[in-house]
Automatic annotation (TrEMBL):
Species of the source: Prunus avium (Cherry)
Gene Ontology molecular function, alphabetical: calcium ion binding; protein phosphatase regulator activity
Protein name, as recorded: Serine/threonine protein phosphatase 2A regulatory subunit B''beta-like isoform X1
Region annotation (Disordered) ranges: 74-113
Superkingdom of the source species: Eukaryota
Keyword entries, A-Z: Calcium, Metal-binding, Repeat
Domain EF-hand, first and last residues per copy: 392-427
Length: 540
């Protein structure tokens, strides 16, 4: 190795590597040229040349070299330190210091850690164990909860060494699973995959405890019980088994046992109502997120605990089903279970305009499930009727907004509002009603809704106003428009007395009373007291 080559690399050398105790490293850093000159002078010393040569020889021979440049070879036997550029005795002596009186010395003495440079101190990072927060098959139950559940399982399965049959499984659903009793068949079939008709203790433990169902919230439990194994959503067919079990076991529905046709219709209507309110995407696929956001779980628990099914207003009321089905039956004059435009125009004593009925049958708000062209099926009618009779709920506002939005651009302009109001105005004139000009109606609507932007209405504007349902009544339902203008004080007082009831609840209650009175009148005129007379034209 050539020493001249080392000298040529002076410009890239760190001054601190000189390790000159005679000079301060801060002075060298402040004047880099001094460091370069000193380094070049140091390399020119004879001792330095001998030291470098010995280091090269040691490296060639494979002898370890220490960091200070000391060599273990014979050539460097007397070189235990780097040679100094200053002659012995040329360095001025340091001023004497008192080891007892110097505050600097006492500080260094009491704090040995301060002798080291803070830049060279590397602190070990604190390793904090992060607990597992994701479990692919659900969070395992805590040991205490698992032991308590196993104890209850042993109590319920005790005395049934071979397992439990379906009719014995209701207590398990209620006491252990904390789910409505009409879920017992669904849980039983989920465990008894071989259709043996028996669920053993071990099989239940594997499904409920080992499967971590125990720690899931109620909505997730119901979702996993009802859905198909290869799906991540619920369909209408997934709800059919629990609804049929509800009909077969609920004390408030015992009178339907002799009419299986109406058991089916009741179950279908409940399912349609569930998807109308909860499946906000409208694609017929109910997700876990939608299930958790809705009020279905609370309604199911209420239906399981309440003997009078008509008190369960959300989804399960038989009176509500009765009103929907009888309305459909009245309009379906040929009883082919399909409704056309001429049938629907008679709804509510001809309350609707032809233009809005045309929009409904154009399937703009919702595609018909009926496979017959120009015909509306029972499910389609349920969606229509719920939207028509409760325009305060969000599904209804979305339904009718799509109908009025002629160009589908997401806003309602004055021209679109006027298009539908023109027929209302003509009908008022034909009925000798005092007509209200569209300009006045438009001002009333703007004052009522207070839209965010002037010139048009958005769906968000309508959802943010409690009176937005009246806008649609003004545009295409003459009877409700007149009722809104007259402001019936009796209805206003009813709404204030029980604000928890929705418009649909009040409508269904009034209609059920009317229909039951008509039914009683027909039975009296026929000399019969049998309510379920199938010879009558009406279904009930």
């Amino acid at each position: 190795m050539d020493i001249d080559a080392v000298v040529g690399d002076v410009g890239s050398f760190d001054p601190e590597l000189l390790q000159l105790p005679e000079l301060s490293p801060f002075a060298l850093k402040a004047s880099p040229q001094i460091a370069e000159d000193l380094y070049a002078q140091w390399l020119s010393l004879p001792q330095t040349g001998r030291l470098v040569k010995s280091l090269i020889d040691d490296a060639t021979a494979g002898i370890p070299i220490n960091a200070l440049g000391n060599s273990s070879s014979a050539n460097a036997a007397g070189s235990n330190s780097l040679p100094s550029m200053f002659q012995a005795g040329s360095t001025p002596p340091l001023s004497p210091r008192s080891s007892s009186g110097s505050p600097r010395f006492s500080k260094l003495k009491t704090s040995p850690s301060s002798l080291r440079s803070p830049l060279k101190v590397v602190s070990e990072p604190v390793r904090e164990a992060i607990p597992q927060f994701y479990f692919q098959n659900g969070r395992p139950p805590p040991k205490e909860l698992q032991e308590h559940c196993l104890s209850r399982i042993n109590d319920l399965f005790g005395g049934h060494m071979d397992g439990l049959q379906l009719h014995e499984f209701k207590l398990v659903s209620k006491e252990l699973c904390k789910l409505p009793t009409f879920f017992s068949s669904a849980i039983f079939k989920k465990i008894d995959t071989s259709c043996s008709g028996i669920v053993t203790r071990d099989a239940f433990v594997r499904y409920w405890v080992d499967g971590n169902m125990l720690t899931m919230d109620t909505a997730t439990q119901i979702f996993k019980i009802l859905k198909q194994s290869d799906s991540n959503y619920l369909t209408q067919a997934d709800f059919k088994p629990i609804l049929l079990e509800l009909v077969a076991t609920h004390p408030g529905l015992e009178f339907l046992h002799g009419t299986p046709e109406f058991q089916e219709r009741y179950a279908e209507t409940v399912i349609y109502r569930i998807f109308y309110y909860i499946n906000r995407s409208g694609n017929g696929r109910l997700t876990l997120r939608e299930l958790k956001r809705g009020n279905l779980i609370a309604a199911m628990q209420h239906a399981d605990e309440e003997e009078d099914i008509n008190k369960v207003l959300r989804y399960f009321s038989y009176e509500h089903f009765y009103v929907i089905y009888c309305k459909f039956w009245e309009l379906d004059t040929d009883h082919d279970f399909l409704i056309d435009k001429e049938n629907l125009i008679r709804y509510g004593n001809h309350a609707l305009t032809y233009r809005i009925v045309d929009r409904v049958f154009s399937q703009i708000p919702r595609k018909f499930t009926s496979k017959v062209e120009g015909k509306m099926g029972y499910e389609d009618f349920v969606y229509f009727m719920l939207s028509e009779e409760d325009k305060s709920c969000e599904p209804s506002l979305e339904y009718w907004f799509k109908c009025i939005d002629l160009d589908g651009n997401g806003v309602l302009t004055p021209n679109e509002l006027q298009f539908f109001y023109e027929e209302q105005l003509h009908r008022m004139e034909c009925m000798a009603q005092e007509p209200v000009l569209f300009e006045d109606i438009l001002c009333q609507i703007v004052d009522m809704i207070a839209p965010e932007r002037e010139g048009y209405l958005t769906l968000a504007d309508l959802k943010g106003c409690k009176l937005s349902g009246n806008v649609f009544n003004i545009l295409f339902n003459l009877n409700k428009f007149i009722a809104f203008e007259s402001r019936d004080p009796f209805l206003i007082r009813q709404e204030r007395e029980d604000p928890t009831l929705t418009e649909w609840d009040r409508f269904a209650h009034r209609e059920y009373i009317r229909l039951s009175m008509e039914e009683d009148g027909e039975n009296a005129s026929n000399g019969s007291v049998e309510v379920w007379d199938e010879s009558l034209e009406a279904p009930f």
